[in-house]
Write a structure and sequence with these properties.
293 residues, alpha/beta, Rossmann fold, 41% helix
Length: 293
Amino acid sequence: MTEPIGLPRPPAVGDTALRPGTFDGTAVFVTGAGTGLGKAIASEFARLGADVVIASRKPEHLTAGAEAIEAIGARVLTVSCDIRDAESVAAAFDAAVDAFGLPGVLVNNAAANFPVPAEDMSPNAWRTVVDITLNGTFLCCREFGRRHLAAGTPGSIVNIGASYAWTGGPGFVHSAAAKAGVKNLTESLAVEWGPYGIQVNCLVPGLFPHEDMTDDIRGNLDRTHDKDACQPALRVGERQELGWAATFLASPYGRFISGHTLVVDGANWQRRSMTNPPVTTIRDQMGRPPFEP
């Protein structure tokens, strides 16, 4: 009888999936690149020669992102930016152009998310998550697209999505709805802007534990006693794997891929059981008492 062995581990951090210098002379604009997965994606572009522009609202995140890119030896610019505000986005791109020229790649990584039962969610919580995750992604795409259309130059956009764009996300209804919008935005813009040389794709991460996870999401993970055994791959993802996928999608070798959503999660989102386990309400899963208006 064949014993389960899971998917092999990836090469170590520092290895590159593409040839060195693939992004020489290319500026890559990454939102939310000061922490976690955004920082990992930005780092892989930096290893391949890109000049990296890190956009974030928080000074401490800008500092952390800059330190990571400088440690690789790449050039980096940090810009304060609230992606919910079109003027702030435009100013951030102005700064990027002044420093490195028009970015050839945009990675829309910034998003907002926290677990909450829908009945407990405030209108402001809904608006905030949708505003950052969906509206902010659109505003950055719009600014990038308009500048390339005016210049007559090609470009590549990688939006960060989520698998519950397909399945729904109980406990994350605000984020799931916004990410469904991001997936559709990706597909719509790919068709609109393809004739002008702009490819638009979406990248969906699975479980990639990292030190910058919020306390509430970390708490949810801590309640899972063995995360590796809960994945079809029998392991969680390593951050560089997501970075390699992003660099490929935006590279010269992926130019004919557009309007596509690539899931990097070891097939976890497609997992199904032959028999359904008992239903546990979201309130019970989160340890919340019965709802009281």
